[in-house]
Records
---
Amino acid sequence: MRVLAVASEIYPLVKTGGLADVTGALPLALASVGAETATVVPGFPAVLQALSNATVIHRFADLFGGPAAVLRGNAAGLDLLVVEAPHLYARDGNPYLGLDRQEWPDNGLRFAGLGAAAAALAAGIVPDLEYDIVHAHDWQAAMAVVYLHFHSGPRPSTVMTVHNLAFQGRYRASLFPRLGLPTSAFSLDGLEYHGDVSLLKGGLAYADRITTVSPTYAREITGIDNGMGLDGLLRRRADMTSGILNGIDDTIWNPATDTLIAANYTRDKLVRRAINKTALQRHMSLDQSVEKLLVGVISRLTSQKGLDMLVDQIDTLVADGMQFAMLGSGDPWLERAFAAAADRHAGSVGCTIGYDEVLAHLIQAGGDAMLVPSRFEPCGLTQLSALRYGAIPVVSRVGGLADSVIDANPAALAAGVATGLQFWPATPQALRYALQTLLVLWQDKPAWRRMQRNAMAAHVSWRASAHRYVALFESLLGDRP
Ligand code: ADP
Ligand code: GLC
């Protein structure tokens, strides 16, 4: 089976969040269960630099305002089809924002260009390349699904995966005539959304199947609280929708072989983990004590992630005797609030503002726990790595967090299956109570060790989920349009 994935980010070339981790890891996981993937990505400077063995396989005379080429090549073990369109993608900044942190005003066209190029490839514009499935990731790729829906002639089946419904690719109606679609597409059943154009809505309306990145999030988005205004459409399409939990790349995230941490360890050699704790405490200027409960945070700092609730409670939690190691970036007020907490609590709160992959590994290996207090979380990857590294995840009971952590309630503790703590509702008080409960568990060292070992044995790799994707793709082969 041949899959054409479409995505705006792919680890390790371009990453702003977990989307890139998934699009980077899934092709390798699918390959191990018999599905080959090529991924269509925009020709951002970082992608073009990394590309090797590139050959031009197609040229577009005009792709939304300028000439473009599709380059086929490899980077980081990935088979890529790169849309080289300098007028759309040759810019400094991140994939969506300029250096001034403002969205590029032509993002609608930039990602319609990605979708149009991918749809043309899927529809056979290059004779030797044929695909069974088009797998579109998030709003940036949704137009591939839309263009294929309106393509006359044979085409692969389409799967639209939602990584985060909060990002929809919504633009003014004036974008619509430039997309080259039939006018019928600008309707309640198509891309029209409260008088605007929503690229994601188009993908959700026209995809043969919809998936999202956890079973619980698949249910949550059909309700008004988490549907982000698309719950009506998602309820209508519920029979076509399923949730497949993400995994992590267990070659990158493996405490037994990780070269970015101070000491390697396994479930059976957990004592060596303390070396990482000391290294982390030293790195973040925390008091060096093995006895203190050290809670890690690695996150984008946005309201989704709920870390304002930690800011609210941090004075009390430090007074209770906890330490915090926080790595993140995002909303300026939250960055300032964490920096201020670190000043107020020197030795107990460490704070690094920015993006730092090496430190992220050390926090997973050296922290005793990992806090993920999201208000909503389609899947979440940091709690999966935390499980693998024996950093006990403390999570709000939403989306993929609910699906991946076994709460240490009395029944789970008695049965010896707990892997972390869940709390609900997502309020500062519930967060504080959860961390205080964790502190009580921390005092019982044998019980803590048992929980760490359970966590490290949890299935967080892509293996099971790769099989689920292949099963979904295979179910579509019969009804190829
Ligand atoms: P989201 O995609 O919503 O931000 P996920 O948990 O799915 O959340 O994925 C986040 C990814 O980004 C993880 O791989 C996490 O380790 C990483 N990450 C987030 N913030 C940072 C940071 N400041 N430094 C390094 N890695 C980070
Ligand atoms: C999004 C979600 C996150 C998920 C990631 C990868 O960024 O916010 O929960 O893990 O996509 O699917």
---
Amino acid sequence: MGRYEIKGGKPLNGTVTISGAKNAAVAILPAALLVNGCCRIENVPDISDVRILLAILEDMGVKIQRPDESTVILDNSGFTGKSPNEELVRKLRASYYLMGALLGRFGKAFVALPGGCNFASRPIDQHIKGFAALGADVVETEDYVSMTPGPNGLRGNRISLDVVSVGATVNIMIAATLLPGQTVIENAAKEPHIVDLANFLNTMGAHISGAGTDTVKIRGVDALRGGTYAIIPDQIEAGTYMAAAVATGGNVLIKNVIPKHMECITSKLAEMGAEVINYDDAIRIKRPGPLRHTTVKTHPYPGFPTDMQAQICVCMALASGVSRLTESVYETRFFGYCSELESMGADIQITGKTAIITGTDTLYGATVSAHDLRAGAALVIAGLAAEGTTWVKNIHYVERGYERIIEKLAALGATIRRVED
Ligand code: EPU
């Protein structure tokens, strides 16, 4: 395992190009199992979550080619419905999408329960509720989920989610695509990657409408044909580089973004004193003066994303006055990084779902540990902004979701390197 060594205190300046969206890629790759034949997926991020997912698919008999580092060609002709490798499934969260894909394609599934970042209790009851509503007999144990067709077979149905869940929305969309009849998901998640998944499936011949609203309709089709699809840019990777530019007092052009997806993040950073210029597919962000305190509450899209909570917390720790940061999706997410930031000089009090952050002029380098992906990203930002040297441990979390982070930050002028333990 390695660690990052960061010599902080230098503003980030220059241009960074954002990779394909992690949370779209990890939904689209399993969804590709529904396709009869080959599909070519472009703008796939080269991150460890994607590499593990591809290893799972390869082990299941899918032929995979990577003509370049951001393109994946999947050929499902040799795929027989083999259950995914248990050990690999436990390495990432998104492996739960294999449940929907196997159910939809073969009418049955046997999949180990997923692993991934453990910053909170992450139940999958809404996924199970969806599969059951589609007619599956579901057996869930502590280790796996097993599904077979129920007495009336599998078919579309109306499902109202009890909580807005990205994972359940994706899994039900994937499972329902090839089932007879119409499925309606109410109280669906509206994240950009839900729309991206619908666009991918529709490109391959599915009939999905309403993605991006709270009601998604899936009219089942008999089969999906192959095709080519390019994944959207990563909203959270872009937000992370924006927060890093702001925290270090830099000036960065963020290329390959969809500015509309960034509005919830850019408006908060602008409120804190950043200058933001939107172009068609790029954003320039700079911090001309000191940062001001603000109030943020995380929400499902189009609200401020929980996956940006830790990164904006670093900006708040460096802003004048007292900021309030409230988490409404994963209550325990603060515990992954706040004490680490405190060891760098941040002043954070957590009361229930809210962190009260009293800003300071300076953070100081320290040895800190990432406890999940976004917590790790926040510690990298804090290290870039801090005086002195910071060592970030447990960087395998960061590498789950950030493609070539060292190279991208170094190109912006950061002094950062990966040191092997
Ligand atoms: N929930 C339930 N039951 C369920 C599913 C979710 O109660 O069956 C609750 C969760 O406990 C949570 C809320 O609903 O309080 C939202 O969870 P959601 O299902 O939306 O989260 P997820 O699908 O497990 C995805 C992303 C996360 C991101 C969340 C929220 C992927 C692979 N993961 O997780 O991304 O934080 O949505 O936007 O898409 C990350 O990228 O760092 C990351 C953790």
